[in-house]
Amino acid sequence: MTRRSLLLVRYLSVALLAVAAMQAFTQPEQQPPASTRGQMLYSTHCIECHNTQMHWRARHQARDWTTLRAEVHRWQAAASLGWSDADIEEVTRHLNDTIYQFELPRPRADARVTVSSHAP
User: Which residues contact 45 (CB under 8 A, 6 or more apart)?
Assistant: First the structure.
């Protein structure tokens, strides 16, 4: 190879390396999952005392979705947080999704909406 060819190869190698480096810096970053309301409420009001180890201790009270929800309800009341049923549900869902993985309850049969067959 001639000196000119070697310089051209070296130049192209550096140029390709520079383009690859620029692409690495210009790739859109993977965004973390959007925070949920349950995560926000838990992080704001509960995380000071309840770290992950607390949820995995041998004597935890939550055994299924219903008891987990009852514990969220109990502790928000003890802390005088005044959460709505929707807030309690969101925090319960956050804890279940991130830690417990309990089976979700099935909708009750009596919760169905009935439609009247007679006209008003």
Answer: 76, 79, 81
